[in-house]
Design goal:
Blueprint: E1 4-8, H1 14-23, E2 27-31, H2 35-45, E3 48-49, H3 53-59, E4 62-65, H4 70-78, E5 92-95, H5 101-112, E6 117-120, E7 123-124, H6 126-132, E8 135-140, H7 143-148, H8 150-154, E9 157-163, H9 167-196, H10 200-207, H11 215-219, H12 221-226, H13 236-252, H14 258-274, H15 283-291
Parallel strand pairs: 1-2, 1-4, 2-3, 4-5, 5-6, 8-9
Antiparallel strand pairs: 7-8
Helix pairs in contact: 1-6, 9-13, 9-14, 9-15, 13-14
Length: 297
């Protein structure tokens, strides 16, 4: 607990994850490009506000990045005013963004020349499980590095080691590919069934005790779609980005993936149509437009 942890990115996921670290008695400093976000977090949970990336880097033994994409992570580490020059030798960077494996590998190699370790540890479970500290954490990197950081990771969730550096981010993208496919086909089933005259809530109940059950039928359809709240806390653009990473992996290794390709195209077009900040569960609205029908009549 004597390790000083700096968290970069106090957004929808970083906020509750940093809070979990504080609840587990870690010394935590936080930075976000929105100073008001940092101020509000410290007022609610405590911790130390960092007014610059340099300040956070100099305060930290471990740095956690939880940001929208790998390009932003690279800028935070090696860009103008980035943390790299201020990290002490022996510092560990835990990259918890849903990032691109190739960029992660490159960042790890560049930091290792400075005596700094980086491994990837993206998460799944959304905001509700981030709040309770029950995320699924996919850790890719040198086993000893992950083990050293294991108490920190376990403060936020359950850890599954995926292999070499970059495999955590690869697995996160593939997980979201499966999740996105399940959501999309489930919504289309609700549209077809609703048009036929079956009550949507009844359909969800039946799917959840049958072989069509998936994460979306269990945790998204009633909560965010049938309620028409569309406020899960994970945006369409972020889902589309993760699907793009999965497809890049397929293309790199010459894997033909027709359903994954179609799935990615639909999610990406929905992001354009509804706006990148729309909640990912609002894909249902886009599916309704394509179908010319509505789930909830």
């Amino acid at each position: 607990m004597n390790q000083r942890i700096g968290v970069i990115g106090i957004g929808a996921m970083g906020w509750p994850m940093a809070a979990c670290l504080l609840k587990n008695a870690y010394q935590v400093s936080v930075f976000d490009n929105r100073p008001e976000q940092v101020k509000n977090f410290v007022q609610e949970f405590g911790g130390t506000p960092s007014h610059s990336l340099q300040e956070l880097a100099e305060l930290s033994d471990v740095v956690i990045t939880i940001l929208p994409n790998s390009q932003i992570v690279e800028a935070v580490i090696f860009g103008k005013d980035g943390i790299a020059p201020y990290l002490k030798k022996g510092t560990t960077v835990i990259e918890m963004t849903s990032g691109a494996p190739a960029v992660t590998i490159d960042l790890s190699e560049r930091l290792s020349k400075l005596g700094v370790t980086l491994f990837d540890a993206p998460v799944s479970g959304g905001v509700p499980r981030a709040i309770t500290g029950e995320l699924s954490i996919m850790a890719g990197g040198v086993d000893a590095d992950i083990e050293q950081a294991m108490p920190i990771l376990k403060s936020m969730g359950t850890v599954i080691k995926t292999g070499a550096i970059g495999t955590g981010h690869a697995m996160k993208a593939l997980n979201n590919l499966v999740s996105a496919g399940g959501f999309l086909i489930g919504i289309e089933a609700l549209l077809i069934g609703s048009k036929f005259g079956i009550d949507p809530e009844t359909m969800v109940d039946i799917l959840n005790v049958s072989s069509g059950m998936n994460n979306s039928t269990q945790k998204k359809f009633k909560q965010y779609v049938l309620s028409q709240k569309y406020n899960s806390g994970f945006s369409l653009s972020l889902m589309a980005k993760d699907l793009g990473i999965a497809l890049d992996m397929a293309h790199h290794d010459d894997i033909t993936s027709p359903f994954a390709t179609l799935c990615q195209e639909i999610w990406s077009q929905a992001s354009v149509d509804l706006g990148p900040q729309a909640d990912h569960t609002a894909l249902a609205i886009y599916s309704e437009k394509l179908a010319g029908s509505e789930v909830m009549k």
